[in-house]
Write a structure and sequence with these properties.
The structure holds 2 protein chains of 2 kinds.
Chain A (H helix, E strand, L loop, with lengths): L2 H10 L6 H7 L3 H21 L7 H10 L8 H27 L2 H19 L6 H10 L2 E3 L1 H4 L2 E9 L2 E10 L2 E8 L8 E5 L2 E7 L4 E6 L5 H11 E3 H5 L1
Chain B lengths: L2 H28 L2 H17 L10 H19 L20 H16 L2 H11 L5 H8 L3 H22 L10
Helix pairs in contact in B: 1-2, 1-3, 2-3, 4-7, 5-7, 6-7
Classes of the chains: A alpha+beta, B mainly alpha.
Chain lengths: 238, 175
């Protein structure tokens, strides 16, 4: 097996048990070097893909199936089942709607728990204005120069109804995460607690935004700045 | 031991042995935790109903994946995913990992979700399910050489994305 063949097989099937491939792995030089590099990549890949399964998954599957044996059902059981079925149907409709549309609070909580802290920790220096423009344009918005130097992190993020933007804005009382959700509407501003942080959900000209900061942060005072500087693109044009 | 008890025992063993891998595979296939759980539940429900048709124990993993892939196809015929643009999969906190490792894994997951399905799926079958190239070819109805090409390209694309994103570099350059 020459090196080119070895590299191809290594890229396609690093787990191959082909004897010639296994011999090549250990023959030293560029072969072993490539194999070591590939093994390190596979290890990272495996770790990233090993998402923890929900707790008790197997037992819930077993329980689910055990509830469905073909035992005889009496008339009263049919009646009870019909009532239960209707109640479940109603509950499912309600839950489906919740699932489909979600609430801003649910989304913010999930999003924050996922990567909020990690992102905040990485917000070290102001982001370039090109970067800000690129992300905000992608979500149909724009920011004026005044807020530019304060944004220390920005990326697009998925929201239940379309793309949003995740930013970290540096303030006198520390970093404040701003999650802009142009496709998620909110009736009115509201506070919510978020682990060790506080969050303030605000109504934007289009959609909504969540401001998340530490307990000292005056999030309400930040609202006008965020509302003033982050605008839907079509509004800025007019 | 009665036939029914034996059947139940056999099913329980399958659920305990394969539910985690199937969940992971489903998660990377569809990108959503809730849908992945539903897919796995439905897969095992169908497996339970058809358990008597499973004669070869060695074929069980492929059999379960076939059921899951069919169910996934059926699901997407009738349901639009919640997130219109899935860029990452939400994975529970991993307390054993350092912040750098968590960031790196997050970036790899994003890279994986950005892979086209034709590259992502064989890669998941290989890495998550431990399928050989022959088994993947059989599952996807492709030739072994086509599968190997897709796997090679999947890894190359993933490495390119990660290098471009600077896996150990600036997180701002992710997108």
């Amino acid at each position: 097996m020459n090196f080119s063949e070895f590299k191809e097989l290594l890229g396609a099937d690093p787990y191959s048990q082909d004897p010639a491939f296994l011999r090549a792995r250990h023959q030293g030089g560029e072969f072993t070097e490539a194999a070591t590099e590939a093994d390190a990549f596979e290890q990272k890949l495996q770790q990233a893909l090993a998402a923890p399964a929900p707790e008790g998954l197997a037992e819930s599957i077993i329980g689910h199936v055990q509830q469905k044996p073909g035992h005889r059902i009496r008339t009263w059981q049919w009646a009870a089942a019909a009532g239960l079925f209707m109640a479940l149907g109603a509950a499912l409709v309600v839950n489906y709607q919740r699932y489909q549309f979600g609430s801003v609070e649910e989304y913010v909580l999930q999003h924050w728990q996922h990567d909020g802290v990690a992102i905040e920790l990485q917000a070290a220096a102001p982001v370039s204005s090109e970067r800000i423009r690129s992300v905000l344009t992608a979500v149909g918005a724009s920011a004026d120069e005044a807020i530019g130097g304060k944004i220390h992190y920005i990326k697009k993020c998925p929201t239940p109804d379309g793309k949003g933007a995740h930013m970290v804005v540096m303030t006198d009382s520390g970093p404040v995460t701003v999650i802009y959700m142009p496709k998620m509407d909110l009736d009115k501003a509201k506070h919510m607690s978020l682990e060790s942080k506080q969050a303030y959900l605000i109504v934007m000209d289009r959609g909504s935004a969540a401001l998340i900061g530490n307990s000292q942060a005056d999030l309400q005072a930040l609202e006008p700045m965020v509302r003033k500087h982050i605008k839907p693109v079509d509004e800025l044009k007019t | 031991m009665s036939t029914e008890t034996e059947r139940q025992r056999r099913f329980d063993a399958l659920a305990r042995q394969y539910s985690t891998d199937l969940y992971r595979y489903a998660l990377w296939l569809c990108g959503q935790d809730a849908l992945a759980k539903d897919l796995v539940q439905e897969t095992f429900l169908r497996a339970w109903r058809a358990l008597d048709s499973l004669k070869e124990q060695a074929a069980v993993k492929g059999w379960l994946i076939t059921i899951l892939r069919r169910e996934f196809a059926r699901t997407f015929e009738r349901k639009v995913p919640k997130f219109t643009d899935i860029e990452y999969v939400v994975v529970a906190d991993e307390p054993d990992a350092t912040p750098d490792e968590r960031t790196e894994r997050h970036q790899i997951r994003e890279g994986i979700m950005r892979l086209p399905k034709k590259y992502r799926e064989p890669l998941m079958l290989q890495v998550v399910m431990g399928f050989s190239c022959e088994e993947i070819a059989q599952q996807l109805g492709l030739t072994k050489s086509a599968v190997m090409t897709q796997l090679f390209r999947a890894r190359e694309k993933l490495k390119t994305v990660l290098q471009k994103d600077g896996i150990t570099g600036n997180v701002y350059e992710l997108f």
